[in-house]
């Protein structure tokens, strides 16, 4: 009897350690079954949640782990959207392959873009990324084939090719679900790899890492390109959902970067769980106060200030400190 009691006591911390991860797995399974229990409006909201989650994870990977604070990620949202429209409208490529190809092409475009952006440091880098996004917006407005400044709509035949409405909605939901979940898994697996160790070391002390022979510039550029491609994938989905794209909507600072920064900061920058919690808070606030006009933005600002006054590490940092909550562990322990 005493041996059995000892086994229970020994295994209890292990159960508690993995309980949050198990709860997350259950939540993923529930969301995977959403088309069978959620209404049409709920599904559309969840699609947007997953897409914003991907944007938040990518910005967090760039700023929270690599130290590259960008306020120009809308450049890649817009590029992803416009390339997706060009590939479907002019090349006749089916929707899902066009999204993947748009992401790859955006990653290629990010290579010379990185050559420009990485000549700047600190606040100058942040401003430089915003200027690059504005250049892309102005260029998109000059392309007459894509509607110029007034934009372009997705042709009806492209929409019909996705099948009946029910099939189309199912396809779009699981596409957004895959984008959101894969963004979390990608960041988690990356941080548990040798690249993740390099990122954590760069965040702690870039100078010390360089003295060990790590090419920090190469690591940063690679992360910049990867996050650009993934951001473009989310952007192509946003405009597939809207069925229309314009330069102002595609390269909007508020919609694609300011809100994402809010999500990451309020949830907890430099953590995988922070953007997950932040996107839940963001959409909860939006559902409650989106009809309040300017008061909605004031509520968001007040919420961010309140969280920062309570704990600068964000909501997840506060919960982790109080409850020891770890959902997606990335650190290594010698047991």
Task: Describe what this molecule looks like in 3D.
The chain contains 15 helices and two strands. It has 335 residues and is an all-alpha fold. The chain has two domains: 41-251, no CATH class; 253-326, no CATH class. The chain has a two-stranded antiparallel ribbon. It is globular.
Question: What's this, in brief?
Answer:
This protein is mostly helical and 335 residues long. The chain folds into 2 domains: 41-251, no CATH class; 253-326, no CATH class. 76% of the residues lie in helices and 1% in strands.
In angstroms, what separates the terminal alpha carbons? 27 Å
Oligomeric state of the chains present here: single chain
Mean pLDDT: 88
Strand percent estimate: under 5%
**Spatial strand arrangement across the major sheet:** 1-2
Based on secondary structure, the structural category is mainly alpha
How many helices? 15
Could you spell the SSE succession in H and E letters? HHHHHEHHHHHEHHHHH
Please tally the β strands and state the result: 2
What number of structural domains do the residues give? 2
